Amino acid sequence: MKIKVLTHIIRLSDGHVMPSWEYTESETEAKEISRKLRACELDSEGYAIRIRRSPKSRHQIDVKLEDGAWGYW
C-alpha cells in the first residue's frame, strides 16, 4: 500500500506556494511525516513545508516570509 501526504512547499523569498506529496508505505510512517511537518522539522533554507492548508493565506499562522515577500500565491 502506498500513502501520500499532501503538502505545500512555501518559498520564503516571495511566498510562492507549491503543492507536493510525501510518499510512504505504511500508516506509521505517514503519521511520523505528519508529526515532522507540524513540528517544522522538514523545513530547509529558504523553504517551509507544511500540510496543505486552504486558503493558502492560512500558512501565515506559522510561516514567516522574508522581508519583501508580498504574500502567499
Topology of helices and strands:
Elements: E1 3-11, E2 17-24, H1 27-38, E3 47-51
Antiparallel strand pairs: 1-2, 1-3
Walkthrough of the structure:
The protein is an alpha+beta fold and 73 residues long. It contains 1 helix and 3 strands. It has a 3-stranded antiparallel sheet with strand order 2-1-3. β1 (3-11) and β2 form a beta hairpin. The radius of gyration is 13 Å and the shape is elongated. The relative contact order is 0.30. The mean pLDDT is 91.
Report strand %: 25-35%
The overall average pLDDT, rounded, is: 91
* Number of DSSP strand runs: 3
* Sheet with most strands: 3 strands, antiparallel
Distance between the termini: 33 Å
Number of domains: 1
- List the helices and strands in order: EEHE
Looking at the chains present, what oligomeric state does this protein adopt? single chain
Instruction: Tell me the strand order in the biggest sheet.
Output: 2-1-3
- Secondary-structure class: alpha+beta
Percent in helix: 10-25%
The coarse silhouette is elongated
Radius of gyration: 13 Å
H/I helix tally: 1
Uncertain runs are: none
Q: What structural keywords apply?
A:
1 helix, alpha+beta, 73 residues, single chain, elongated
Can you summarize this structure?
The protein is an alpha+beta fold.
